[in-house]
Amino acid sequence: MNTIQFTNDFEYEGERNNEGVAHGQGTCKFKNGDKYEGEWKVGRRHGQGKYTWKDGQTYDGEWKDDNRHGHALLLRLNGEEFLGEWKDDQVNGLGTLSFLDGESYVGEWKENKMHGHGTYTFANKEIYIGQYKDGQLNGQGTYISPEGVKHEGIFEGGVFRNIKPL
């Protein structure tokens, strides 16, 4: 394994194919301080790998054609954690977003937004179970108070309408 310097933007150390292109296991250190360690396929991040930003945030999971794609864990500096599915460098599919204050969302995602069915648990232990659209509560849903009192209704653009106690 030799180190290859590509322009002044990054440095790669690891396995290469016959043409000298990153292929197999390798580490890339970028000029801005970011780092990628993992699998490569014909010069692109592909397979399992970990990307660490210079500020300490990490993405540890699957890659496809240089994009985050597949199952992964994203750890942010503010304590947020996302564990779930990615497609074409965006959160898509099922996933869990957890916050330091105890809030969490478990459910479906589309293009980095809560979209589809999901459950949001608030820090005060309130729970919403229902539909989301483009990151907002939208459609049929159930709100459960910390005491266990349930209300059902329809959300439109994040606003609760047609509330019925259960």
Topology:
Layout: E1 2-6, E2 10-16, E3 22-30, E4 35-41, E5 44-52, E6 58-64, E7 67-75, E8 81-87, E9 90-98, E10 104-110, E11 113-121, E12 127-133, E13 136-144, E14 150-156, E15 159-165
Antiparallel strand pairs: 1-2, 2-3, 3-4, 4-5, 5-6, 6-7, 7-8, 8-9, 9-10, 10-11, 11-12, 12-13, 13-14, 14-15
The Rg value, from CA coordinates, equals 21 Å
SSE string, helices as H and strands as E: EEEEEEEEEEEEEEE
Largest sheet, if any?
Answer: 15 strands, antiparallel
Helical percentage: under 10%
Strand coverage percent: over 45%
- Overall strand count: 15
Average pLDDT metric: 93
Silhouette = elongated
CATH topology of the largest domain: Histone H3 K4-specific methyltransferase SET7/9 N-terminal domain
CATH homologous superfamily heading of the largest domain = Histone H3 K4-specific methyltransferase SET7/9 N-terminal domain
> What is the number of independent domains?
2
Q: What is the name of the CATH class of the largest domain?
A: Mainly Beta
Adjacency order of strands in the biggest sheet? 1-2-3-4-5-6-7-8-9-10-11-12-13-14-15
CATH architecture of the largest domain: Single Sheet
Count of separate DSSP helical elements: 0
Any low-confidence stretches, pLDDT <50, length ≥5?
Answer: none
What is the SS-derived class?
mainly beta
- For the terminal residues, how far apart are their CA atoms? 65 Å
Model description:
By secondary structure, the chain is mainly β. The chain has two domains: 1-54, no CATH class; 78-166, Histone H3 K4-specific methyltransferase SET7/9 N-terminal domain (Single Sheet), CATH 2.20.110.10. The protein has no helices and 15 strands. A 15-stranded antiparallel beta sheet has the order 1-2-3-4-5-6-7-8-9-10-11-12-13-14-15, with no helix packed on it. A hairpin with a 2-residue loop joins strand 14 (150-156) and strand 15 (159-165). The chain is elongated, with a radius of gyration of 21 Å. The model has no long low-confidence stretch (mean pLDDT 93).
